[in-house]
Design brief:
This protein has about 150 residues and is an all-alpha fold. The protein has one domain. It is about 40% helix and about 0% strand. Helix 3 packs across helix 5. It is elongated.
Length: about 150
C-alpha cells in the first residue's frame, strides 16, 4: 500500500486556487477578503511545491478580465433566478431594483474571490497537470519574462 496522497481534481484545484501543475501549492500569498483588493491579488512568483512559474509572460493575466466578466454574469443570472423563485419580479413594484441593488452589493463583496478564481482558471488553461511533477521539471518561460515590465499595469 502506498502512502501517496490522492491528487485533487481539476475543479477542486481551480476553486481552491492551487497550482495547476502539481495541484498542491497555493497560487496566492493571501486568501481573498472583501475590500482588500491589492493584498488579495499578490501571487507567489513560483509554486511553493513544484516551482512552476505563475507569471508565464508579461501581461499574461490580461485575459482574466474576460473570465471574471463571465463569472460575474453567471453569478448575476443565478441570483436573478434565485430572486425570481423566492421573491418574484413584478412590473408593478420595485422588486427588480431591490434585486439589482442586492446583486451589486454581492458582486462587490465577492470581487476579490472572483478575481482570484479567474486567474486560477486562466493559468490552468495554459499549464497542464503533470502527475509526475516530482521527477519532471517545469517548463522554462524565461524567454517570455521581462522583469523591467513586470507588474507594469
Amino acid at each position: 500500500m502506498t502512502s501517496e496522497k490522492a491528487s485533487r481534481s481539476y475543479l477542486t484545484s481551480v476553486f481552491n486556487c492551487r497550482c495547476p501543475r502539481c495541484r498542491e501549492g497555493k497560487l496566492f500569498q493571501y486568501p481573498a477578503r472583501p475590500f482588500r483588493f491589492k493584498r488579495s491579488m499578490q501571487m507567489n512568483k513560483n509554486c511553493t511545491v513544484c516551482n512552476q512559474v505563475t507569471e508565464l509572460e508579461v501581461g499574461f493575466y490580461y485575459g482574466t478580465s474576460f473570465v471574471s466578466y463571465t463569472l460575474g454574469i453567471l453569478i448575476s443570472v443565478f441570483s436573478l433566478i434565485l430572486w425570481f423563485i423566492t421573491v418574484g419580479i413584478s412590473i408593478n413594484d420595485n422588486r427588480f431594483f431591490y434585486w439589482l441593488a442586492a446583486n451589486s452589493i454581492l458582486l462587490l463583496l465577492i470581487q476579490p474571490w472572483i478575481m482570484q478564481l479567474s486567474r486560477s482558471f486562466w493559468i490552468s488553461w495554459f499549464v497542464k497537470y503533470d502527475p509526475n511533477w516530482k521527477t519532471n521539471k517545469p517548463k522554462d518561460f524565461l524567454e517570455r519574462q521581462n522583469s523591467e515590465q513586470a507588474n507594469n499595469w
